[in-house]
Amino acid sequence: SSVPHHQRQPSRALHSHREATSCRKIHMSFHSRQRAVLVRAAAASTPGMLSIDAVEAVPVMENGELTAFPPAAGVYAVYSPEGELQYIGISRKVSSSIMGHMQDLPDLVGSVKVALLANDDKDTMMASWKSWVQETISSAGKVPPGNAPGIKDWTQGGTRTVKPELRMMKPGTGVGDLSCAIDDLIEQVVQSHRVVAFIKGTRTEPACGFSFKVLSLLNSAKVDYEVVNVFDEVHNPGLREAIKTYSTWPTIPQVYVDGEFVGGADIMVEMSENGELATLLDVSEK
Length: 286
Fold this sequence. Notes:
The protein is elongated. Helix content is about 40%, strand content about 15%. The protein is built from 9 helices and 10 strands. It is of the alpha+beta class. This is Glutaredoxin domain-containing protein. Keywords: Iron, Iron-sulfur, Metal-binding.
């Protein structure tokens, strides 16, 4: 007998155990890493703006784990993986801004310096930003490349409309209230949308390193896609386990193209490197 298309295992080497283990480590260490970043950022939020050189650069990801930057107002400096200063920015929610840069310019974001601000009024934030920019000009003789006149790579994300995540049920609805099986709801989602990514977290704030990698690959491919947050128990109750049963695949994220299960993060990376992903997404758009 034939196997339903959504239950076919991807025809590539399985990396599910490594994905599952790494994601568990991410959730176990999330809060400790967040506290560490908050401590380092808080040390930079003293009266009288600290020099940019006095603030420690924090890697955005280590061993597959996303760093939890503070969701607070601050000035920040982005460095490339090679340690070269790329951009100085200000934000009322530093965590979201940094995540946006990671998704838009993944090759240029390696580590970040953050100084939290007690006040998030425009004048205070601009004064802090100018302080770091002027300091950089004095020491390097020029502004960071991302702050150069006419360069919009680092700021266009802030003006772009972010597509909301798909919600499978209305608030207050549980699996027991459904008139159909949750598998049928999943089937409707993957058949109604060309590209769907079931991830841990949201489009702008993925909660798992593998989910972030999948979003980065889809963003780099410039393909239109939908996101379903398996952690959203208000709108997607029970989905975290149900999607594993539906696909017979033990880990999340999971990506579907034209109703077909493609795989998780490792398989997406492999497909991206050998050109299969570009071919698949291009064919699906025709």
